[in-house]
Design a protein that fits this description.
Number of helices: 5
Helix content: 55-70%
Strand order of the largest sheet: 1-2
Number of strands: 2
Shape: globular
Length: 126
Amino acid sequence: MKNPKAQKLIDKIQRDLMRNGLVTNTLVEELKQLRPFAIEEENPLLAKVIRLAFEHIESTDSFMIPIPDDEPLDEDENEEETITIESTPQESLDYLLSLMHDTTIKNNVSDLREYSRALSEYAEEN
């Protein structure tokens, strides 16, 4: 995100997450405050990921989505398979927040798309 207020809010959320763990009511409110910045920047992917993340946290009282690794297991395969990195809910949410800092980086956008897909699939399954 380009907005300095958004950057500060992301940093605050990450600090609180590292200090206090997943305090769901605070996280949900802060993510709801962050979403308008993504809308203002006309970044629909980021706005969607933020919405899906706070809805997921509200419904699960955790963050059940692992850190994605978007590298194909076998480059010759037509179907792109993904593997996930073992992580705690706190580590995965922290990584997701770190991706939001700079959406001009191709890998960040790719991982944001992967989070969006995983959050959507989780919501459909549960």
